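TICKET #2291
ISSUE: user wants both folds in one file
ATTACHMENT 1:
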Amino acid sequence: MPDAPITAVLIHGAWAGGWVWETITPYLEERGFRVLAPDLPGCGPRLGNPAEASLDQCVADLEKKLEKVGGQLLLVGHSGGGAVATQLAESIAERVIGVAYLAGMMLPSGTGFGEVVEEIIKDFPEASGIGPFLDWEADGQVSRVQAPAIRNIFLQDVSAQVAEQATSRFTPQAEGSRALVPIWSQARFGRLPRLYIEALQDRSVILPVQRRMQQLVPGARVASLDTGHVPQVAAPEAVADALTEFVSGQANKKG
């Protein structure tokens, strides 16, 4: 790790919140990171007006929080938070030491996750992931995940106790902050170092989809973990080690 503390900006995915990073936070802090794990707008207690939810809203919210944070930033996007991490990196590239995707949506500019799934679902029907297990409200502007699917699709590889505690914390999600399409340039996001942490047993963003995104946005370093969709809960120390090694490698290159 470099001498000056790096802030790991931990960006949660759909239906979750900053709480999804609680297990890994001590491991990151032990390795010298400062940690920022906010709740994003358009989800849970910050649902607000679903019609106003958007990728731009998420990025602007994070930019405001980061005004008070000095030093370099490591952006870490889990699942759908990957699209937010990409767009944030495009906006504040000068401050970013790297972008890490944790079973995350690492998408080509102008492409949504649904387009990647549509391309691959004929060969891999399970690529539908959590989609068939959503309940909709507010005229299709808000979704919730059915409780059994949280256990079976997101958390199949953690203990019953951990899964039970987590299930009650998943919340409604505005579609405007879930169906995200990042727009980025090679000169900004495109030049940043990237790490893709694969979740080999993921039932939500299945491995063939993860690897297709790696093909579509080439150049990321890859680490593989034998976990389901939420490695930061199932294998927090391994994720922290992978992030630390990634950042140390970037610092050494600059040194």
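ATTACHMENT 2:
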Amino acid sequence: MKFVSIVIGSKSDYEVMKECAFTLEKFGVAYEMIISSAHRSPERTKNYIKSAEEKGAQVFIAAAGMAAHLAGALAAGTTKPVIGVPMASGELRGEDALLSTVMMPAGMPVATVAIGKAGAINAAYLAIQIMALDDDELRIKLLEDRISKAKKIELDSSEIEVIL
């Protein structure tokens, strides 16, 4: 079975990353979510990557704050796409996590999205887009979602617009 793997660095990341899960659910995309840390449980993280790939993980999403090495640890252990979601935490409110996630060495890419909730949702959308490359049903759902969003903008505008 093809699915998206969501790995969060700590339980405190769940409140934000449940938005990622909800977005995947909205599109009918299977996922699993675990807590594992690049620093506090490196063996668990390493073993999980192998297990997830064997079960059919197509894309990994990693959420972590502060030093935020989780996405890099996943990228080092797989050739599947990895999407990093920096978490807002600590004195720098996620800017440190953003830099840690985006500044990967050449040849070890991590697609990095925005800090926090918008990033969690966009990580799901990016994973869905990747999976839709060979799934026409999923591609159609994405197109329908875009059309729905455009119609909502038009409706919202019609309620307030003033045009001369």
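RESOLUTION: both attachments delivered.
EXTRA DETAIL ON ATTACHMENT 2: The chain has six helices and five strands.
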